[in-house]
Backbone:
């Protein structure tokens, strides 16, 4: 294998950083969900990379669990966005004021 | 050292991740997100984990990305193209992103990880199936329950009560 573990970890760090940028800067709820997906994918890439380089099947098993849980999270997240959109006619999170203290 | 396939995949993944957040239209953004998820599936193939790669394609590109596309289409047209951002917050976000990249990169480079390579054969995916059905079976059952309850929860959340009342009255 020509690629080292460091290469995969660097891609993972870049994806994590972009995801955190998206979460902290964007105000569109759907774009924030994109950013969360990127962070989850960076974590999955780390799990599978460690599973490959320390030969072990558990990393892949956990990546599979993580992908399934992410699917559940997206379903609920999108339902929440649709409910909020119906209430406020907007997807800008600064407009969702009911829970604001 | 990384090979050409790896570099191509890295460019696709990172480039479409940036595009997903920065492209003006949310529809193109969600298509770019598909590119990121597909790139990650490609990395899984490079890591000799074809089962996880297929799972990633089936779940992420097949269902999550399509679900996001449909949700975007449910939103009003002008909201898809609107881009509201605070300039100062944006610069702070870029600073945070660079600090994270440099900080985590420095930590990883200073650890001994860069010397790790492997010549071992990849794990057979039959082993994963065995693991799922022997050691991890309670977690597998629990995951099924979580998925079912999240789908029911999503349906309950998105239900329109005014519509059902109208039908009931009519």
Residues:
């Amino acid at each position: 294998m020509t690629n080292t573990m460091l290469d995969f970890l660097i891609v993972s760090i870049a994806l994590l950083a972009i995801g955190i940028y998206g979460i902290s800067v964007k105000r569109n709820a759907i774009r924030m969900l994109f950013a969360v997906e990127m962070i989850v994918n960076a974590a999955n890439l780390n799990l599978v990379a460690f599973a490959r380089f320390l030969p072990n099947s558990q990393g892949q098993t956990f990546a599979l669990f993580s992908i399934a849980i992410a699917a559940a999270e997206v379903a609920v997240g999108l339902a929440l966005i649709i409910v909020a959109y119906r209430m406020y006619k907007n997807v800008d999170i600064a407009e969702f004021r009911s829970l604001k203290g | 050292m990384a090979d050409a396939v790896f570099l191509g995949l890295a460019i696709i993944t990172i480039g479409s991740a940036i595009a997903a957040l920065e492209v003006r239209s949310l529809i193109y953004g969600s298509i770019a997100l598909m590119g990121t998820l597909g790139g990650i599936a490609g990395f899984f193939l490079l890591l000799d984990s074809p089962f996880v790669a297929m799972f990633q394609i089936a779940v992420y590109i097949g269902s999550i990305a399509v679900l996001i596309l449909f949700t975007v289409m449910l939103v009003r047209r002008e909201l898809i193209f609107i881009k509201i951002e605070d300039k100062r917050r944006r610069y702070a976000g870029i600073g945070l992103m660079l600090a994270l990249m440099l900080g985590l990169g420095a930590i990883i480079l200073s650890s001994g990880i860069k010397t790790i390579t492997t010549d071992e054969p990849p794990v057979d995916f039959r082993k994963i199936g065995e693991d799922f059905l022997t050691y991890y079976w309670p977690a597998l059952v629990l995951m099924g329950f979580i998925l079912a309850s999240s789908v029911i929860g999503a349906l309950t959340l998105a239900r329109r009560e005014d519509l059902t009342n109208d039908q009931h009255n009519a």
